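Data card: per-record layout.
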Amino acid sequence: MSEQEKLIARPLKGSCLCGSVSITIEQAHREVDVCHCSMCQTWGGSMYAGVEAESFSIKGEEHITAYPSSDWAERAFCSRCGSHLWYKFVPTGNRTFLAGMFDLPQDIAIKQQIFIDEKPHWYDLAQDSPKKTGAEIIAEAEAAGFTFD
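The structure for this 149-residue chain is written out next.
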């Protein structure tokens, strides 16, 4: 599959539950990242599923609260209805947006599952995808030059 085929050609529009915040993503990746870390579980009740895009625009920014959940991460939500909006990796500025906000095509696949060692026993994902422990993800990030205190 070419790099262009890995992207969704049409813009995808999504919003929070109350509609105060709307996000349009362009050239969304045709994959969803899934995180099972304890912070994502606490934040959303179970796993986090996010979609990355080459560009985005936001309306209703006055209704967004960004919470620095660690030295390297920010999580954003609508301050009116509480809907989760994105996870941002602070060192790079990279964001993934909550996959559930968008009407994604049927051929979307899971890119990878991370922090698989923190996944609760009470659920499993049927789709086979790469699975990495927290230690493996931290080692990859450190190898790329990131530090975590």
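Known properties of this structure: The mean pLDDT is 93. Residues 4-60+95-143 form one domain.

See the next section for split statistics.
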